[in-house]
UniProtKB/TrEMBL annotation:
This protein's record includes keyword Iron: yes
This protein's name: Lipopolysaccharide assembly protein B
Subcellular location: Cell inner membrane
Topology term for the membrane: Single-pass membrane protein
Underlying gene: lapB
């Protein structure tokens, strides 16, 4: 049977037409998907600018489905999940990015950092710590070290916190001298609770040598020596505080007065207190000087002297307590009302977050900031 060339002549144009039609169909579909992905992306941005996070997430999910290889969309989606508090989905997005073999080194480090933040925000500190350690040598190393420092402070792992702070200090990421001294003081408190007084004294000695400008070290050292029966050494520690951290004297004024009485160094203590008082009147310093007075009249004159330079409801209450009025019932009622009114004024307030407390804190319980509590009380701010 002879081959009919007519079929070939008809078949070739037909095959070409079918191939061309198929390619046009694919091109058309690709263009349609390409148009839809940017639309979803820009729609997501619009929702994000209008603070509509749920709608933005839906739009970005649609955009990612249209173009699953786009890393930037995954980063945006993961960050949105984390901001909304949907940490499980944020972790899945960033773990999916890390599983991609075609991801660049820069984007891989970025995804690792984002994953560590997911764990940190979710409160999974052990997994966050492991993720942050993987960022050593990357562009995110500085941020990772700061996050690790926050983790160790939160878990009260002071030796590890000290190690990280030393690395940050050496890397010139800021001055961590005072922070390191705080860690030494925290370790000393733990040693003291464990009954290891020698270790506590050693750590406090390191703290005051490392950061003599930190009042906490001198106060803790003085307290420890006083507990050991060394009142003179305790007084000397507070005298060093007056030299290196004079602004913190109100915090140590009462202890200084008590130690002065025990050691017979009242005159020296009064000189230190009056030197501070002449520059800036303080409630605690005035009360300490009043406790060193020779009698009630001298003590009341201290309160009046303070009131003459600075109005103070706390000092007025103290002065009235020493006065003898004709009507005892009226005096008792007025005294009680003044004490109640002045009680909030005796508190300390965090300069960073405004958290108020009856006692002074070296680290704010509210915002975790160090040295954010002034040495003066609320009424004096």
């Amino acid at each position: 049977m002879d081959f009919d060339l007519t079929w070939l002549l008809w078949g070739l144009p037909l095959a070409f037409a079918l191939g061309w039609g198929a390619s046009r169909l694919d091109l058309r579909q690709w263009r349609m998907e390409s148009r839809q992905a940017p639309k979803a992306y820009f729609r997501g941005l619009n929702y994000l600018l209008n603070e509509q996070q749920d709608q933005a997430i839906d739009a970005f999910i649609e955009a990612v489905q249209g173009d699953p290889d786009t890393a930037e969309l995954h980063f945006a989606l993961g960050n949105l999940f984390r901001r909304r508090g949907d940490y499980d989905r944020a972790v899945r997005v960033h773990e999916h990015l890390l599983a991609r073999a075609d991801l660049s080194r820069k984007d891989r480090d970025r995804a690792q950092h984002a994953l560590a933040l997911d764990f940190l925000k979710a409160g999974l500190l052990d997994r966050a710590e492991a993720a942050l350690h993987k960022l050593e040598g990357s562009a995110f190393e500085g941020e990772a070290l700061l996050a690790l420092l926050a983790i160790y402070e939160r878990s009260r792992d002071w030796p590890q916190a000290k190690r990280i702070a030393q690395r940050l200090d050496e890397a010139e990421q800021g001055s961590f001298t005072t922070r390191l001294a705080h860690y030494l003081c925290e370790e000393a408190e733990q040693a003291q609770r464990d009954g290891d007084t020698a270790r506590a004294l050693q750590l406090l000695g390191e703290a005051v040598a490392h950061a003599p400008q930190l009042a906490r070290g001198w106060m803790a050292l003085s307290s420890l020596k006083a507990q050991g029966g060394h009142a003179a050494a305790a007084f000397d520690a507070l005298r060093m505080l007056c030299q290196h951290a004079p602004q913190a004297l109100p915090l140590a004024a009462h202890a200084l007065a008590e130690l002065a009485v025990q050691t017979g160094r009242q005159a020296e203590a009064l000189t230190l207190l009056q030197s501070f008082d002449s520059r800036a009147p303080s409630i605690d310093v005035t009360e300490a000087m009043a406790s060193l007075s020779t009698g009630p009249e001298e003590a009341r004159s201290r309160y009046l002297g303070h009131l003459g330079r600075e109005a103070s409801l706390v000092m007025a209450t103290q002065w009235l307590a020493g006065e003898k009025l004709s009507d005892d019932v009226a005096q008792t009622r007025v005294q009680a009302a003044l004490e109640q009114a002045s009680a909030p004024l005796k508190r300390y307030r965090c300069a960073a977050c405004g958290f108020e407390a009856r006692q002074h804190f070296w680290q704010c319980p509210g915002c975790q900031a160090w040295d954010s509590y002034p040495a003066r009380r609320v009424e004096e701010l």
